[in-house]
Design brief:
about 210 residues; mainly alpha; 9 helices; about 75% helix; about 0% strand; flat
Length: about 210
């Protein structure tokens, strides 16, 4: 048991160190150039070439440097998402195993007590989906792209194979908001601040998804 505790503490410590590296990388990335700026430099170079004017070597070097920084930023984001997804999958797997073990112990008793009728339809659940990544972020993106909230809820419900009311609850009651408050906060983009307050440990993910 002591050995297990020690290993867990090491994993937690290592995870915290990794998150600090990500935080530092994201902070640096916020100060770097965007891909739009890289394209502007490329366009300038092309204009000089079309005009048969010499392209300054420093301009080419700057383009390569900025493009490299942009690619590094994309790679950091990919690693961050992979890290978070892996942790979520590990936790979900452990939870499912515990649930399955409990179910197996109770199966015989339940079957003897109650048998479902032939026309029984199993209710749709949340299927292990996460509030932020699987419900809120996709719904908000759909609404920002022009969908009404009912259409967005319906799209995500269909995608995740859950009930419409499940999606609605994940986007409203889970944030202590009414439907009207949720819709208004999405329109005003105040929803970003609401998400950051509720999911304070996922601020970088929120910034990345809604950048």
């Amino acid at each position: 048991m002591e050995n297990l505790k020690s290993r867990i503490e090491r994993v937690i410590s290592e995870s915290k160190d990794i998150m600090k590296i990500f935080e530092s990388s994201f902070a640096d990335s916020n100060k770097t150039v965007s891909f739009h700026q890289v394209k502007e430099i490329e366009n300038t170079i092309e204009r000089l070439k079309r005009q048969n004017l010499p392209v300054p070597e420093d301009l080419n070097k700057l383009k390569i440097s900025l493009l490299t920084k942009h690619e590094n930023h994309k790679e950091i984001i990919a690693l961050f998402n992979k890290f978070q997804e892996s942790l979520r999958d590990i936790t979900a797997s452990a939870t499912n195993q515990k649930h399955i073990s409990f179910q197996n112990k109770e199966t015989t008793i339940r079957r003897s007590i109650y048998r479902k009728p032939a026309n029984y339809e199993k209710p749709l659940g949340n299927k292990g989906n996460t509030n932020l990544e699987d419900y809120l972020i996709p719904v908000i993106k759909l609404m920002w792209s022009g969908y009404g909230h009912t259409e967005a809820f319906g799209q995500i419900a269909k995608k995740l194979d859950v009930r419409y009311n499940t999606v609605s609850a994940q986007c409203t009651r889970a944030l202590d908001l009414s439907t009207e408050q949720f819709v208004n906060s999405v329109k005003s983009k105040e929803i970003i601040n609401i998400l950051k307050r509720k999911f304070f440990d996922k601020k970088y993910l929120i910034d990345t998804e809604f950048k």
